[in-house]
Sequence to fold (388 residues):
Amino acid sequence: MKTAERLERIRPFRVMEILDRAQQLEREGASILHMEVGEPDFPVAEPIRMAGVEALQRGHTRYTSATGLPELRHAIAAYYSRFGVEVNPEQVVITSGASGGLMLLAAALLDPGDHMLVTDPGYPCNQVFAESVGASVIRVPVSARSSFQPEWSDIEAAWRPSVRGVLLASPANPTGTMVPRATLSHLARSLPESAFLIVDEIYQGLTSTQSEYPTALAVSSRPIVLQSFSKYFGMTGWRLGWIVVPDRLVDAVRRLAQNLYICPPTVSQHAALAALSEEALLEHERRGRIIRERIARLAEGLESIGLKVPVRPDGAFYLYVDISSSGLTATEFSRRLLEEFHVAATPGLDFGDHDAERYVRFACTVDLDVIDEVLLRLGRAVERFKAL
Ligand SMILES: Cc1ncc(COP(=O)(O)O)c(C=O)c1O
Fold:
């Protein structure tokens, strides 16, 4: 059987290889500390769980409309009013995770041969969504100097006639940094009228520390916003997200969703209504404060053992750590950290090529006492690596 040529260009997710190896070591009896996977460690909040059970009991198990339950689209529009932003429920399309949103947007906005600008480092799957419709990405290298977000001059320099638009994450994976308000507003004003501007806000609200803006829609009505119930709402396995699209895109996206997967998961949509209740939101705020505390503890501890955190995150639960003082590449650092000290973290190469061997991503998805133990092991690791 001949398989598609695009498969050759899909890189393996190194974090999954690290997870596999960590699990193998665990089976052999090692106590592994996991900071590699970007998944919240909290159980799903009680009101969401109860609403999911009730949806099953009431038999809410059939197809919904392709764009999602009208009451959920309304509830999401109302959620934006908390940030002083008016969103028409018609513009809200429920998707199967942010991943489903990325798939719909790639299919709706890119033709074969087109390009989309993304950052390096950035979320690696974006490239695959573009390639699945015959388009590709151009990676814009970003560094700590600009908080790992592009400046307008970077976008201008990367632009060429085949570029259809820009996809940025704010807060971003793997760095947790936001696109500054001024840059976002400049992009919204200055990109060619025919271009799209997608802002992936899947980590929005997670630590409630976002200094720049609560959502890109508070800065401009131009961005297409991509969101998810996975992170802030802690519903990774329920596979639910949403996009906010301009009126003229709603119908195209609806037709694509109808054809590609019929509708987002029904039980999850009923549960998600409870995720937007006051009770659940209070719980998510509480969890945000815990994540904030973890990030501060890890960042301070890392600095005290000589590992630099060049930019503190604005949101998300990631720290992108400069490990160059250890004398190792990030790939070797992560490998040895796992093999010799049983700490799992993700090497920069998972997120691109630019300066990737200098950085390792740590996800603060573990309790403070685990973070303290990670810091002890890291201290010993750095001593050993430097001694060589
Ligand atoms: C930046 C970013 N966008 C999108 C996704 C996809 O998330 P999901 O499909 O679970 O909503 C992820 C997952 O980690 C991510 O980090």
Summary: The mean pLDDT is 95. DSSP finds twelve helices and twelve strands in the chain. Residues 47 and 143 are 41 Å apart (CA to CA). The longest helix spans residues 278-304.
